[in-house]
Specification:
Layout (H helix, E strand, L loop, with lengths): L3 E6 L3 H15 L4 E7 L3 H11 L3 E2 L2 H6 L6 E4 L6 H10 L3 E5 L6 H14 L3 E4 L6 H7 L7 E7 L11 H16 L4 E9 L8 E8 L4 E7 L6 E8 L2 E6 L4 E6 L8 H12 L15 E4 L7 H15 L7 H25 L2
Parallel strand pairs: 1-2, 1-4, 2-3, 4-5, 5-6, 7-10
Antiparallel strand pairs: 7-11, 8-9, 9-10, 11-12, 12-13, 13-14
């Protein structure tokens, strides 16, 4: 099988991980070849070039003029440069994995989607949490989610300060919930504040969808702890997902479905009776609580494997440009709601 020759555009924090995974996949026998790296910083570029034994280029234009014969690339530059880096690569016939968010504006996202369609290229948005094994496992238990609660908290770092916390962190959860709820967003309520940077560092959002589903999101990059959790509720079921630990807990209350209030009260009373004097029993003891088996896996590697498979098979990626645009548009709508709230409250 012919190897897919790839370049990584941007060798910062995200780019270094893309370089690492491409090389790991190459060494593992995947038909891929890490062929080049691009970064405007001579120090960063030369370090990556030396570590991976590939040529380094200062600009995308230099890369394309080199005649290396590339097939695909990962775009890992700061968000404000996504469109400028991705557009000439698509026009040159390369398939792209663009880190999230897809672009800085909806208009730029539309341009990239149109370019990919015009040149018949694969355009994947880098929402890696879609490939988290816990998320994949949760989809098998999805039937009618009506309430979501997402928490994504991080300790402050100087990384990704070119965007606010909604575009930096919350957008992961926005993308996942949008992929799980088959309904348009009806209402957005949001509040957010800058704390240590010049953009919003902590935000809380409430979405209501046309089908009645409600989703609450909290994102912070000034927390004292790191939390990555999503909980969702649907008729007679509650699921709790931990992204970092790749855990999935399911609580099934089907046993109480269809019972009238008197029967439910009797069931609770039965399971509330102590087993022995002085030994109380929890009132939910009759519920079915189970930990779902989740196969381990690095989300970024799974995402990049999926991208390469889409390139080889010429198929629409799992998270295509349209999905990336949808999450971006919602994130920007949330930012507008935060700005309106700030103005209204005099903050």
């Amino acid at each position: 099988m012919a190897r897919t020759r790839v370049a990584v555009i941007g060798a910062g924090a995200f780019g270094r991980n893309h370089l690492r995974v491409y090389r790991e996949l190459e060494l593992a026998g995947t038909p891929v070849e890490l062929a080049a790296v691009v970064d405007p910083s001579a120090e960063v570029r030369e370090a990556a070039s030396a570590q991976y034994g590939v040529p380094g280029f200062e600009t995308v234009e230099e890369l394309l003029a080199s005649g290396l014969g590339l097939d695909a690339a990962s775009v890992c530059v700061p968000t404000v440069f996504h469109a400028a880096a991705a557009a000439p690569l698509l026009a040159a016939g390369l398939d792209l994995l663009v880190e999230k968010p897809l672009a800085a504006t909806v208009e730029q996202a539309d341009e990239l989607i149109a370019l990919a369609a015009k040149h018949g290229r694969v355009l994947q948005t880098g929402h890696l949490e879609r490939f988290n094994p816990a998320v994949t496992s949760a989809r098998a238990h999805l039937h009618r989610p009506m309430f979501f609660e997402a928490h994504r908290l991080s300790i402050f770092t100087a990384r990704s300060l070119d965007v606010d916390v909604v575009l930096d962190l919350m957008i992961h959860d926005l993308d996942i919930v949008l992929s799980l709820v088959d309904s348009p967003v009806r209402e957005v309520r949001a509040v957010g504040l800058p704390v240590l940077s010049r953009t919003v560092d902590i935000a809380n959002v409430r979405l209501e969808f046309e089908n009645g589903c409600v989703a609450n999101f909290t994102a912070s990059r000034v927390s004292t702890e790191r939390v990555r959790k999503l909980r969702f509720f649907q008729p007679h079921q509650y699921l709790s997902l931990d992204f970092a630990r790749q855990d999935l807990l399911l609580i099934d209350v089907t046993a109480m479905a269809g019972l009238d209030q008197a029967a439910v009260a009797a069931l609770i009373e039965k399971h509330s009776k102590p087993e022995a004097p002085g030994e109380p029993k929890h009132p939910t003891a009759g519920l079915n609580m189970s930990k779902i088996t989740v196969p381990p896996g690095e989300p970024l590697r799974l995402e990049m494997e999926s991208f390469l498979e889409s390139v080889r098979m010429r198929r629409t990626p799992v998270v295509d440009g349209v999905a990336g645009r949808r999450a971006l548009a919602l994130a920007l709508e949330i930012n507008a709601a935060i700005a309106e709230h700030t103005k209204r409250t005099g903050l």
